[in-house]
Amino acid sequence: MLARKIVRSALVRTPRLYDRWTGQWRYRAYYRLGMVHEREFRALPFLVHTQNPLVLDIGGNNGQSILSIKQVLPEARVVTFEPASRHQADLQALAAWLPDVTIRRQALGNTDREETLYWPVYNGMAMHALASLDRAEAESWLDPSRIYGFRQDQLELAQEGVEVRRLDGLGLDPDVLKIDVQGTEADVIAGGIETIRRDRPVIMAEALHEGGPAHAVLEPHEYRLYSFSSGRFEPGADPGATNHFLIPAERLPA
């Protein structure tokens, strides 16, 4: 955590370096080297056994998850949901380069509506990776606990209107839901609960913890929380992991 704080503090003071560091080029380089950008993506082949699984990448950012999914599941069909206009060119470039990748400029939530997407701007630098439909989430992510020398007067919010849709209204049959939506994970799950009941997909997300909102929605449907490390799934959340999994009982590897 200390190392992350040091790196984050350096990046917010050098906007050009931040743009380069978070650019798609780095994730394409990982892909060409046979790497994934977060180690938990290596768990997906243990959980998916169909020939061309459908993976929904909910919160696509600038495409890092697409590349990691295609690294470990090259035959997967990937549908990426990303409402931010900032990322559309990068995502469409990936869709043109990789097979079976579809980009939808939408957010997923618990109702069909028009909504506002917020993201923090610090020291004049727009931090699109922290965009959220939850204004408080976007506003509170940067603070003295995460940034050395944090200054509140350098923090502001930017915004744009986006389209939100329910997963249950889209006619998709997913094998995996990868969710990275900065605080609205439970809304995504609530808007897709009939799809989840029917298809029993594996759910992979950053903001999962025992008894949390997303876990509470799915626990009655025999979904359990797991961490993945060294090729094994362990019950509960690992504080050192980036992502955790909600797995239906019948999908857990022996």
Distance between the termini: 33 Å
Q: H/E element string?
A: HHHHEHEHEEEEHEEHHEHEEE
CATH superfamily: Vaccinia Virus protein VP39
**What is the CATH class?**
Alpha Beta
CATH topology title: Rossmann fold
**Backbone shape:** globular
The helix count comes to 10
Helix fraction bin: 25-40%
The count of domains is 1
Strand content range? 15-25%
What is the residue-mean pLDDT, rounded to a whole number? 91
Low-pLDDT segments = none
Could you say which structural class the secondary elements and strand pairing correspond to?
alpha/beta
Strand order of the biggest β-sheet: 3-2-1-8-9-12-10-11
Rg from C-alpha positions? 18 Å
Summarize the structure.
By secondary structure, the chain is α/β, with parallel strands linked by helices. 30% of the residues lie in helices and 25% in strands.
